[in-house]
Amino acid sequence: MIVKMKNAGRSMRRRGNALYESIYNATIELIKKVGYINLTFQEIAKAAKTSRTVIYRRWQTKLDLIHEIMVYKMKKVLDGELIDKIEDTGSLRGDLLQLLTLYNKAYLEVGPEIMNAILFEMGQNNKKMTEITVNATNKNILVMQKLLGFAKARGEKIKEVSETTLTLPFDLIRVEYLMRKGVIHEKRLELLVDEILLPVFLA
């Protein structure tokens, strides 16, 4: 009987996504409570009711963990990669508004705790963070190239711009998110498209 109970207990252990989500949630709650700088794997393991061994087996640093949380939440709310969700709406204005809406949705899902932690790491001259930033930037450029490709195929006159300019829509959402604490209304998104993005990209 005792052996059966032990085996049952083992089979009840959380694994895979269930375990990782408990660690993600514990991390976010602890950042709220003690701040990212004071966050430790020991505290995360205790709050998630797991062991430090489990955490260190998957993540070497806090940055590895918060980056995974960010990617997981973005993919979850978008049901995949951002570039796969960009569709031809029939106009550059519609396409840009679609992009800002989706990107804002992803930011809201990730939440201020993880986003602020990522911003902190960006200011630490961290090699790993630099690699993450470059990879994210390259993905965003591909998204904009796809979006502007729709416009060119429709016959809209599009300016030739640098890759730095192609990241502008994403930079705008980041700034707006910080300034407005995550609340960006639809009318505000339309204003960003009409008064900033269209003049930049339309010839």
Number of domains: 2
**Distance N terminus to C terminus?**
77 Å
Overall shape: it is elongated
Number of extended strands? 0
Number of helices: 12
CATH class of the largest domain: Mainly Alpha
CATH topology label of the largest domain: Tetracycline Repressor, domain 2
* Class based on secondary structure composition and strand pairing: mainly alpha
Give me the strand/helix succession.
HHHHHHHHHHHH
| Uncertain parts | 1-12
CATH architecture annotation name of the largest domain: Orthogonal Bundle
Q: Helical amount among residues, as a percent range?
A: over 70%
The percentage of residues in β strands lies in under 5%
Global mean pLDDT = 90
Question: What composes the largest sheet?
Answer: none
Radius of gyration, in Å, reads 21 Å
Structural features, described:
- The chain has helices at residues 2-11, 16-34, 41-48, 52-58, 62-78, 82-85, 92-110, 112-122, 127-154, 163-166, 168-179, 186-201.
- It has 203 residues and is an all-alpha fold.
- Helix content is 76%, strand content 0%.
Supply the key terms.
disordered N terminus; 203 residues; 12 helices; Arc Repressor Mutant, subunit A; Tetracycline Repressor, domain 2; 2 domains; mainly alpha; 76% helix
